[in-house]
Amino acid sequence: MQRILPLSRETLARDLPASFVVFLVALPLCMGIAIASGVPPERGLITGIIGGIVVGLLAGSPLQVSGPAAGLAVIVFEFVRAHGLGMLGPVLVLAGLLQILGGMLRVGGWFRAISPAVVHGMLAGIGVLIVLAQLHVLTDASPKAGGLDNLIAIPRAFIEVMSLDQSGSLAAVAVGLCTIAAMVGWERFRPARLRLLPGALVGVLAGTALAALAGLAVKRVEVPEAIFGELALPLSGDWARLAEPTMIVAALTLAVIASAESLLSAAAVDRMHDGPRTAYNRELGAQGAGNILCGLVGGLPMTGVIVRSSANVQAGAATRASAVLHGTWILAFLVALPWILTLVPTAALAGILVVTGWRLASPAHALHLHARYGLATVGIWLATMVLVVTMDLLTGVLTGLALSLLQVVPSLRKGALRVENAAAPEKAGVPEVRLSGAATFLQLPHLNAALERTPAGGAVRLAANDLTDIDHTCLEMIEDWASRKAASGTRIEVVGGSGALQDKLAAAVAAPQKD
After folding, report:
1. Cβ(205)–Cβ(351) below 8 Å
2. b/e per residue, 140-169, with b = 16+ CB within 10 A?
């Protein structure tokens, strides 16, 4: 049985310094994401505390770190604008309950079956929306209600900044640009001995220093005198509104998007280390418990987040204790030094989010999809992204999923996937996974389970003699599996099959074994 928190002198020597690095990364991001969500910054910090301590204790992903996510900022902003901050709590509690139910029903593995084109398209659309909104915050103005509204208003905002009677806006832009330059420059040129000092923190310190030393009249983070006094259970009238169809849809949307982002992030974190793998259903339940608590005390929705998680791995964390400790440091900071937050310009936090949004919207994902899987897959990415920006996130994701299903319809006519674990006939003792029929995202959990049954070390053969087709979702999963097997010393060989199909499988297996 898994202990609540695995502790030893050896692991603590690695987890303690890693937790402080993650704390430094999380602090500005928690505040910035809260502001981008249209809520006070302390609510983002509250979510960071719960994501670290509570989810860290329950997590099924050993090195993933949870907290407020940029990917949900757009949803929260629109929800709060339409229904008020008071309704966010009850909806978040319902979303958390749905996540716990999903974990109990063991649907966690199915989230891995979501097409990478849909996931990257969703994140790219969210990235565009974040950039468009935060460009206005960079001028000390408030963002508009929607992505297109923000885009249309940018030229006017630029003209106002350049006018002589808007010196405050120009000063805010200077702070934001200073933050962006410091963050990007530090990440590119930082000395090796300071590689663990996060660029986001350096950017905020640079922007704050510029505003303070130059005496700039810019907006700064507002912190209530009693931060924890602002937290309260949702009102009874808000709970009563949960029966409304709009609230049910909102809770379902939050649950699905947060779960997908968390579990896909966990899969990515698994590729960064050689330790224990993620227990997806346990992780889904832990995320649900965290979101319920956030809803009860007035926090933001949380997910597992790749930026903080990758910092955790790179800093040498060994166990979940690092995530728990990072949440403890945030709590200690809020108790002892909340006045420091009032020194931070909101434009500096906007600068961090502009960089974050730009990276989410990077066309590198589309180029990767095109090079590996062709124009049709890129079309799914593009359609998802465009609809997220021009319509809403749910419409974009559902359209992307529908297009993914249409893409595999021809494959389904070639027969359902069958997977057999056996021994290679001409090589005694060598395990072989035999694939026949069409491998699509609809059978991904079945395929993944068969691949995970293969032993570590030695050789494993992937037989594709009777494989008729394979989609990009299964290929990405096979590449992930091959990467972890290669790290454990396993040699994987593709046998049978011919033409483009055999080439795709061989490329997916060979890529990680060349690293």
Report:
1. no
2. bbebbebbeebbebeeebeeebeeeebeeb
CA end-to-end span of the chain, whole Å?
35
Provide the 10 A C-beta neighbour count for residue 252: 15
The pLDDT > 70 percentage for the chain reads 93
Identify the three-state secondary structure at position 23: helix
pLDDT band, very low/low/confident/very high, at 515 (cuts 50, 70, 90): very low
CB-based contact 185:164 (threshold 8 Å): no
CA distance 218 to 63: 38
pLDDT higher than 80, residue 157: no
Beta-strand runs (E) in 283-337 = 302-305
Distances in whole angstroms, Cα of residue 37 to Cα of each of 41, 153, 393, 469, 489: 9, 19, 14, 43, 45
pTM of the model: 0.78
Angle at 212 between CA 207 and CA 214, to 5 degrees: 95
Q: What is the rounded CA–CA span in Å between residue 487 and residue 499?
A: 28
Best-predicted range by mean pLDDT among 31-45, 361-375, 417-431, 497-511?
31-45
- 462, β-bridge pairs: 433, 494
491 with 513: CB under 8 angstroms?
A: yes
Residue 354 has pLDDT above 80, yes or no: yes
Q: Over 70: is that where the pLDDT of 163 sits?
A: no
E-state strands within 262-378: 302-305
* Cβ proximity of 116 and 472 under 8 Å: yes
What CA–CA distance (Å, rounded) separates 254 from 367? 29
Q: Quote the CA–CA distance of 420 and 40 in Å, as a whole number.
A: 54
In the sheet that holds 418-423, the strands lie side by side as 418-423, 431-439, 458-470, 490-495
**Cα angle: 166, vertex 170, 172; to 5 degrees:** 115
